[in-house]
Amino acid sequence: MADLVLFGDVLTMDEANPRASAVAVEGGRIVAVGSDADVASLIGPETVVHDVGEACIMPGFIEAHGHPMNEAVLLGDPVVDIRPVTIPDADGVLAAIDRAVTETGPEGAVLNGWDPLLQKGLDDPNIQWLDKLSPDKPLIILHNSGHAAYFNSHAAAAVGVTRDTPDPEGARFGRDDAGDLDGVAYESAAVLAIAGPVLASAARRFDDLIAAECARMNAAGVTTVSEMAFDPKMRAPLAAAADAGKLTTRLRLYEMSGPKRASDVEPGAGDDLVRQVGIKIWSDGSPWIGNIALSFPYLDTPATRALGMACSHGHANYTGEQILEISTPYYERGWQIACHAHGDEAITMVLDAWEKMLAANPRPDHRLRLEHVGAMRPDQFRRAADLGVTCSLFVDHLYYWGDVLVGDLFGTDHGGHWAAAGSALAAGHRISFHNDGPVTPTNPLRNIADAVNRRSRSGKVLAPDERIPVEAALRAQTVDAAWHLFSDDAVGKLATGLHADLVVLSANPLTVAPEELADIEVKATVFAGETVYGTLG
């Protein structure tokens, strides 16, 4: 007999059986999907039965490029949240910094979410200003993109970073004309050198932090998420959290590449709850701080002049030779590789490197991934598809930064075609969408709306020719996202034998008006047959 039976409007995302009216669950797995009659024989005296009425039952959403372990720490104590989604204006940000410095002890203050492009009126911090704000204890402010951190002299001293500290691979410490630290760390390795010890101390409460993060994911309807910057040092705390039953989302781990060019586990290590499936590498950085490599220039505007990027084509953080040198040892050991690449020149560099690697050692179904791909061109999508390279798009950039992309940074042609999902589909890709938390709040339904409508927060439509159908957008948050994570045999659709990870929505996304997609509510989330958010009744 089934443990749980749900009746309602069932959107399965299974091409073999796309629509149904009932789902039956036993032992955390789906045992039947079909008509009411198909599940009737599975209902016994102990079966919990719910009719969700006019609500829609779908597979749980999948965040194909997330940072739940990092987000768990950054959204917990003692880090102060100053992201634009929390504090939209510069005055509020500056007030929050003053409060944090005043209220913290000798360990100092850490804040996350600085974004002058959205929080108009902020200037990029320098070490003199930060020293003045906090003259006697550390102060660290993380940029909202995650690609930079600002720090004062006490923060640098606390971790032993000096003017003579060498730059890490693919990262750097900003320096003034005299060679002294200017208070900026660029890219992950440098950011972690400054902020890592403080964040690691916060992570000592990891069980509670990751449970809270899973709850946030579940509230958005997410039941599977990747960790795209996995640190092997977190393997034991993560295993302990799993053993303690703290995880109500499935995790797919992508370990950050390192000097050894090897992991301490084999590809696929783990189980359906926690599994390491890939390696994360980088080619360039963030459009919001100017370090992406482009074939076209930034505009000359007050915003780009403040960035120091007016009329610049930006830059990559690695060479093509370095991308090949980093990728090849992992690829030859059987790993899927996911490469952060925003600028079209950076994307060409990665595709050139990977084409050489694939030619030297062909491998079927490698699913090499390009991440974010903001400025990727139609010809590049076609080339990537020919190589078997797939793409995950940060489509929520259109909502939050759409006006900035067009008006401040790149203009209508280049900024308007950012996150070109239509071109990706036309090239034959199975794409996924993501929020790259904590950069933007996890919200698959808004991602879907972004891809279908391509409207910024002000209502501006960006490149309507890049709009995609609702069904394709749904696939990018379910079955195709599962495919990206080598997990389509376990999750992503409602089919017999798969895990009973479900979301119940207030309306069917295929039947509401496109402009109403982002307003659909998550009424309940079911993970492994158990309700972990909302109510089914």
Structural features:
537 residues, single chain, seven-stranded mixed sheet, eight-stranded parallel sheet, alpha/beta, 22% strand
As a percent range, the share of helical residues equals 25-40%
How does the major sheet shape up? 8 strands, parallel
The shape, in one word, is globular
Residue runs with pLDDT of under 50 for 5 or more positions: none
User: Compute the gyration radius: what is it?
Assistant: 23 Å
- E-strand count: 21
**Terminal Cα span:** 20 Å
Give the SSE map.
Elements: E1 4-11, E2 19-26, E3 29-34, H1 36-40, E4 48-59, E5 61-63, H2 68-74, E6 80-81, H3 90-103, E7 109-114, H4 127-133, E8 139-143, E9 148-151, H5 153-159, E10 172-175, E11 181-186, H6 188-202, H7 206-219, E12 222-230, H8 235-243, E13 250-256, E14 274-282, H9 302-307, H10 320-332, E15 336-341, H11 344-360, E16 369-372, H12 378-387, E17 390-393, H13 397-416, H14 421-426, E18 432-433, H15 444-453, H16 470-475, H17 479-484, E19 502-505, E20 522-527, E21 530-534
Parallel strand pairs: 1-4, 5-12, 6-7, 7-8, 12-13, 13-14, 14-15, 15-16, 16-17, 17-18
Antiparallel strand pairs: 1-2, 2-3, 4-19, 8-9, 9-11, 10-11, 19-20, 20-21
Helix pairs in contact: 2-7, 7-8, 10-11, 11-12
